[in-house]
User: Fold this.
Amino acid sequence: MKINLSLKNKIKIWKIIYKIRRTEEIIALNYYKEKMRCPTHLSIGQEAVPATLSLFINRKDQAISGHRGHAHYLAKGGNLKKMLCEIHGKANGCSEGKGGSMHLKDDKVGFVGTTAIVGNSIPIGVGLGLSIKLKKKKNLAIIYLGDGAIEEGVFYESLNFAIIKKIPVLFICENNFYSVYSSLKVRQPKNRKIYKLSQGIGCKSDFTDGNDYAKIFKKIKKAVEYIKSGKGPFFLEFATYRHREHCGPNFDDNLNYRPKKLSYNWIKKKDPLTKIEKNIVNKYPKKIKYLESEKIKINNEISSAFKFAEISPYPKTNILKKIYAK
Amino acid sequence: MQNKRPITMAESINEAIQIAMKKDKSMLCYGLGTTDPKGIFGTTIGLEKKYGKDRVFDVPASENALTGVSVGLGINGIRSIVSHQRLDFFLLAMDQLVNSAAKWFFTYNKAIPITIRLIVGRGWGQGPTHAQNLHSWFAHIPGLKVVMPSNAYDAKGLLLSSIFDPNPVIFIENRWLHQSISNVPKKQYFINLGKSKKKLSGKKITIISSSYLTAEAINACKYLKKLNIDVDLIDLRTIAPLDWSNIKKSIKKTGSLLVLDSGHFSGSIASEIIYKATNECFEFLKKPPSKLCQPDIPEPSSFGLTKKFYITYKEIIGKVCKMLNCDKELIKAELNYKKEFLHDIPNSNFKGPF
Assistant:
């Protein structure tokens, strides 16, 4: 695979991270207006993995995710207006206001959906992968999951089946150490790495820092090459951190459920946006102007999408009659 | 019926799957035991050889994941028929059934064509977790269709309609019906989902039944006829969507309603039908509607404990006579004439064709 971490690609990753970051911040800023009346799980701090992955996949590769899916949807190229309309419960939403923030999809870019039950999307992603294999296509299915999802029985069932059938699936586990407020300490044995568990089950697996685009790049490149060679699934674990509360627009470290040092390290020192922006600016100072002009463009796109969502109409209730497909 | 071709329901199910596999070359058939020597009570025998390992395969004991896999396949337009040797085993898959399969079309406007075959055990000591009749659970979930064939002929046409329906369909087979025989045409035919079947026409009372209880009801009606009680017997065929308009017509005609339901007494489909009857046909009812269900007790295993557990033609006759105030002595004489049978295996009356 001839993909390198060139300046052009770095800028591509940066753009996606920046767009996700600003979208989420603007959602947070406007949440108090009570116009986005649904549970909303922001991706701030966890943007680097899906942004970097986007270099390796196209719209024929299919992705599926869970409750915290904004970053995955946007990085796959999902329509911003439709996402914001969905969060606002509007007719133009990507699931016509029936799903909310936790049910995003964009068929045009191969973003199949997000589901709101921990672990629920994993076997569906394996089914997507199986159909890709049966149709003899060269694409892959991407399943985003978190550290909590691997505690569900269906994770083991799905991984096991994907290995047996050599299904082209990339499992991306974003380990942010917390399932709502419950730390890994009370959920998983000490010193047992998630990727080692997956390896033990028989899946090719690896691990790296999920806030460092360069490290992510290397691991994903290797994993995608492996899957495309027809050998079966690959499991990647990425350590990362959410900056804000589990669900909602606020910071919640005042509740002291996460060690202060840990939060400081991940939020202040290892922020994925700062990391890639600093790298570009320091190495290529001539690009500063370009980045600034891109920021303006992205912010304009977000604010016009936001306005569009706010003035869009609510869905008509006759859509609720569609219970069965015909 | 012109066509004399008696085969078992297990065979008619096998035929339906084969017709579907030929019609839709991408359709898959899987589930635990699908390719084993016994082929899910004979229903999947020979399929792997004819349609290949890619399309017909055995799977790990992972009911929940495999249901999710069928959703993923459905998203990409691949139809699945998934078989489970007991309904009880499939309870491990409630998340994928309820949260994924049943919701996908509503949320994402994408049809999910899955047929899930669930086999309900009965008798021979099946016990608390091998014989549960939980069809009312599935009927409670919007987005699912629930089909309960009562004979080999219906099973073939209903299964074909289920497979080619663009929605998730729960197809419930009573284990005792697999060996029942009807005349089944060799060709393909479809029986519409959501439509009931009038099995007998009468004026005294409406009896609603489904699946195996239709067989018991037909048997009961033979005796009732001797007592000059002619029954309007409706076999539901599909319990979701429910064919309410035909039930309503019948209640208006007879003014009496008895619903048979193999599920537990409380929270049953029978209760739902009776609610509709009292709500929409109140002025036509001559007496309170009634129902026969399994008790609100888990099914025990012992031969000694299950004696009174099942609804048989005897309970149906007794209930109808009570509702219609018949001569008790006459019924007793009629029933005592009938030889005793073993309650935990399909009785000798029940072979078909019917």
About this structure: The CA atoms of residues 140 and 294 of chain B lie 19 Å apart. The interface with chain A takes residues 26, 28, 54, 59-60, 62, 64-78, 95-96, 99-100, 104-112, 142-143, 145, 166-167 of chain B (CB under 8 Å).
